[in-house]
Design a protein that fits this description.
The complex is a heterodimer. By secondary structure, chain A is an all-alpha fold. Chain A has helices at 19-45, 60-84, 91-115, 124-127, 134-163, 176-209, 222-247, 255-284, 289-299, 304-323, 325-328, 331-357, 390-413; strands at 368-369, 380-381. Chain A has 13 helices and two strands. Classes of the chains: A mainly alpha, B alpha+beta.
Chain lengths: 422, 235
């Protein structure tokens, strides 16, 4: 494998985007346009065009919201903890991690909109904010965090932009004194960023974990579990993006860093597995139906494929890969482990939403009225299998495409390489 | 949509008297008792709720659950066949999870104990539906479908993309009349009244029959009480 030198072969002259890049951006723009049309269709016809009903009232949008909050929190926790504890080795990827966190939290914020029945009234959250609602606190922290991480991205790129005479430097100077001040501000911001990132994902967890109506969610481990999931998926994505940017010639670092991050990922995977085990054991041991039934649905019931996929493909396999020293020093294996870790966390979140909601509270026949009239079907359901519709999926794809586009453009424009000597 | 005209004024004196709320304390806490001994499982209250509140197809604020495995199917209890129903609508909790979680205070408490809903403020996030341990809230997913071109009852139809639920016929209470599920019950299984009135029929019944609230363990403190069946007769 390549050593830690700049992959000159991959570097291209600035200002001449490759054909592949143009095709990639074109694809993203098309997906965004389709997603926007699907959103328009949903606005006109209501959320009836989704597969959500009174029985399973949250679906794919919320799933992606919490998944992206996790991706964001994980990336920034790793970056700011690295800075806070003076892990100099993390330096080459710190700008990438901060940019990833910013784009991810922006996507999370966007994912709230299609989930609302009346998105045009979203301002009511400001006007009539209810202090006892975890959702209000979560949206507040999402926007504070978004502003903070955007400032962070700019702060890291500022001096380089000023040196290059870019307008994005907003007229700031490239002097030594300014750079020294930057370093002080960055260090101070790391103190804010780390707790903010932890808080961001904890409050998201509490949207679910404080609800006594949902046996599967009502557990004190929800916030710690969300943090560990965020660390696995966030670090996994940072590793993948770092390798992509290195290949594209935008970033240079040694394979040793990949191995180090891979080792860290292995630790996070173990913590995630430990939290899941602790929760499942606590919930199922007494055998009380409200607690144990959701667990047995995950272990042996209808959601067993999700759980075992997460456990084996999302936790065991990445851990085994990363635990083997030879594989950890091979970026291709670390990339595979990172990808599996991300998919595993996504499937875990999917199980969380589905298993939390598919069985109606007070599960006596005939159940809950589903909320739409359907020829030939019952108006009631005790259990409901949520499978997203095409419209929902196109909206999600459009938002994901927007995030990918934003990241691609930002990573192409902003200097991504952090200077080692600072 | 034309303004609705209350037919309560158009009712005969006898009909009006049948639906009178009756004496109550100066500061009432409205509540209801559902007598599971008297309930026939006939769904009359569920149907009149749909009609009174202008509910579209596929949407129910009030429904009649059967205790057991299947709708209207008896269960074997201590060697004998039994059949009981659980009429279920909003419990108007005093510690209401929906009021707690609503980000915009669109669902709120009124001084008389009712949990009401402001349809013009609701953003349609459905967090209240997540939080409700009774599963009684419903969402307007699409354009309302009705069996006839006409709207029904005393309430205007709700906007697309908002959450709604039983409001204890708050429009009827304003006219001194009990909710429609109460006056229409053929077996008199529903009793409406003032929980603050110790001498009133509602409080007396709850005391005598040792009324129980649903899911007491989740601490919601409902205003609806269930009167469990005393005689367990075989069918």
């Amino acid at each position: 494998m390549s050593a830690g030198t700049l992959p000159v072969a991959g570097a291209r002259a600035r200002g001449r985007p490759s054909l592949a890049l143009v095709a990639w951006i074109g694809l993203l723009v098309v997906l965004m346009a389709i997603g926007l049309m699907a959103f328009g269709y949903q606005l006109v016809n209501g959320l009836a065009v989704t597969a959500m009903r009174n029985t399973v009232m949250w679906g794919q949008y919320i799933l992606f919201f919490m998944f992206f909050v996790g991706l964001s929190a994980g990336g920034l926790i790793v970056a700011s903890a690295g800075r806070l504890f003076g892990v100099a080795a993390f330096k080459p990827i710190i700008r990438l991690a901060v940019l990833e966190a910013t784009v991810a939290v922006l996507l999370a914020a966007i994912f709230i909109l299609p989930d609302l029945g009346r998105p045009e009234r979203v301002i009511n959250i400001l006007l009539f904010a209810n202090p006892t609602s975890p959702m209000v606190w979560d949206i507040a922290i999402v926007f504070i965090y978004l502003a903070m991480s955007t400032g962070y991205v700019w702060l890291y790129a500022r001096a380089d932009l000023a040196r290059a005479g870019s307008a994005l430097a907003l007229g700031t100077s490239a002097s030594e004194a300014a750079s020294a001040r930057d370093e002080r501000v960055k260090s101070a911001m790391a103190w804010v960023a780390l707790p903010a990132a932890i808080l961001l994902h904890s409050i998201t967890a509490w949207i679910f974990g404080l609800q006594i109506s949902r046996g599967y969610w009502y557990t004190a481990i929800m916030a710690p579990l969300f943090i560990s999931s965020a660390l696995v998926s966030g670090l996994g994505l940072v590793i993948l993006l770092a390798l992509v940017l290195r290949r594209a010639g935008r970033l240079a670092f040694a394979d040793g860093l990949v191995a180090m991050l891979g080792g860290l990922l292995a630790v996070f995977v173990v913590v995630e597995g430990f939290f899941v085990f602790a929760e499942f054991l606590t919930a199922s041991y007494p055998g009380a139906p409200g607690e144990a039934d959701p667990i047995s649905r995950m272990l042996t019931g209808p959601y067993a494929p999700l759980f075992w996929f997460e456990a084996v493909v999302g936790l065991v396999v990445p851990f085994v890969i990363l635990a083997i020293r030879r594989l950890r020093y091979d970026p291709r294996w670390v990339a595979l482990a990172s990808g599996l870790g991300i998919v595993g966390i996504f499937v875990h979140r999917l199980g969380l939403v589905l298993n939390g909601l598919s069985y109606v509270p007070i599960g006596l026949p005939p159940g809950v009225s589903i909320g739409i009239s359907q020829a030939g079907g019952s108006a009631f359901a005790e259990t409901y299998w949520y499978v997203p519709t095409l419209v929902e999926t196109l909206i999600v794809a459009g938002i994901l495409a927007f995030g990918a586009l934003l990241f691609t453009v930002a990573a192409a424009i902003l200097p991504m390489q952090e200077h080692e000597n600072h | 949509m034309p303004d609705k005209v209350s037919p309560i004024e158009a009712l005969s004196a006898a009909s009006r008297a049948w639906g009178e709320i009756g004496p109550h304390s100066p500061k009432p806490h409205w509540g209801m008792a559902v007598d599971q001994e008297r309930c026939l499982g006939c769904w009359s209250c569920a149907i009149i709720c749909k009609s009174e509140n202008n509910l579209p197809l596929g949407q129910w604020w009030n429904r009649i659950l059967t205790e057991g495995e299947a709708l209207d199917q008896p269960i074997l209890e201590r060697g004998a066949l039994e059949m009981h129903w659980l009429p279920l609508a909003c419990q108007h909790c005093q510690n209401a999870p929906c009021v707690k979680v609503c980000p915009v205070q669109s669902t709120y408490h009124r001084d008389d104990g009712l949990v009401l809903q402001d349809y013009d403020r609701c953003i349609g996030c459905r967090y209240c539906m997540i939080a409700c341990p009774y599963g009684v809230r419903v969402f307007n997913w699409g354009a309302p479908a009705r069996p006839t071109p006409h709207e029904t009852g005393m309430v205007v139809s709700r906007p697309l993309g908002t959450v709604e639920k039983c409001l204890m016929c708050v429009h009827r209470l304003a006219e001194g009349q009990v909710p429609s599920c109460v006056w229409s019950c053929p077996s008199g299984a529903r009793v409406f009244g003032d929980l603050n009135d110790p001498g009133g029929r509602l409080v007396q019944l709850i005391r005598e029959r040792e009324g129980e609230v649903l899911l007491e363990e989740v601490g919601t403190r409902p205003s609806v009480t269930y009167l469990p069946p005393r005689r367990r007769t075989t069918l």
